[in-house]
Amino acid sequence: MTTDIDRPERLHGLDALRGGALLLGVVLHASLSFFPQQIWIAADQSTSIGAAWLFFAIHLFRMTAFFLIAGLFAHMMLARRGWLSFAKDRVMRIAGPLASFWFPVMVGIVGALIWNAHASGLIVPGAPPPPPPTYDWTNFPLTHLWFLYVLMLFYVAALILRAPFALLDKDGGWGGTVDWFTGALIGPWTPALLAAPLALAMYLDPKWVAFFAVTTPDAGLVPAPVALVGFGLAFAVGFLIDRRRDLLDRIAAWSPLYLAVAVVSGVYAYILAGGPVVTPVGEPTDAKAVAAAVVALAVYSSAFAAMGLCLRFLSGHSTIRRYLADSSYWVYILHLPLVMLAQVWVQDWAGPWWLKLAGVSLGVFAVCLITYELLIRHSFMGQWLNGRRVPWRQSREMAAVPAE
Length: 404
What we know:
The chain is mainly alpha-helical. It has 14 helices and no strands.
């Protein structure tokens, strides 16, 4: 019997990157309460500009890399299963969790907000509560589960756009042209080519905030143009790359250059953004054009650097990495209310910011991984979220095998 380890299509490096991008969300959100200025639920008494640098570095590449890998895996599944099986699987494993977990996650977030309001003296016992917010399609709170909603939009777009080409490509002519175009796109110039349309979207958006790079579409049912362009391009390129697996070696080979460009442009982007400033850049100016170009280049160079480095160094099978990749979906779904509650709990504690950040992150990781092991991995939930349920006996046997 062929195992997951032996299947040639199992791309362990990309699986690790996809899982790592989700797991880094815990650290990303935990860092927000340690910014020098309050932009999050809790304003910790221990702050540092280092927390802002950490957030910026993670946020710059994390979700762009995720959508790059998501596009590649989407094409892989679509080619293997066909459009109908693909659509059923995505509805069950992406739309289903979004619909099922949004409300309990929202309850947890609201609970953390209320606790923080009491702790901060914003709510006086006996006083009437403030009026509840009103939501419509323009500001509906998708929370951190927004990526599931956007993924579904991209899946639908991929199926619709692919259909006419599949009908016309009876002799493989269209496919050959597409593969040639993809090959021409991938090289040392790739981040710069992709950065051009993203920079234009940033430049034209009066609400764009340079510090947050690609706008997070966590509110409203119509994602911001910057998010659609930034994440949509990444998804589309990943989708095309799966047709040309040989290009993965090229991306891995150019990863040192991508990394160097990412470091230089990323530092410059942070400087141009002015640090953790959340005020929109505003109307188009020459300064905004420069900032948009540099930020866009940093976004794609860092995403491709992450992809290439994972292909170079994490392509072998590892039981630990596979476990963390499998758990990452559940960890990301569950983590945000826990992070917010932990931030409120520790905000008045004495201690350096980095120690409290580590404590919040590791504590949330521990809770999420324990619940994953006890409630998800070996139950029908594991089949639902990850496409497989691992029996307890098999889990013990895998744990006894040392990672390579």
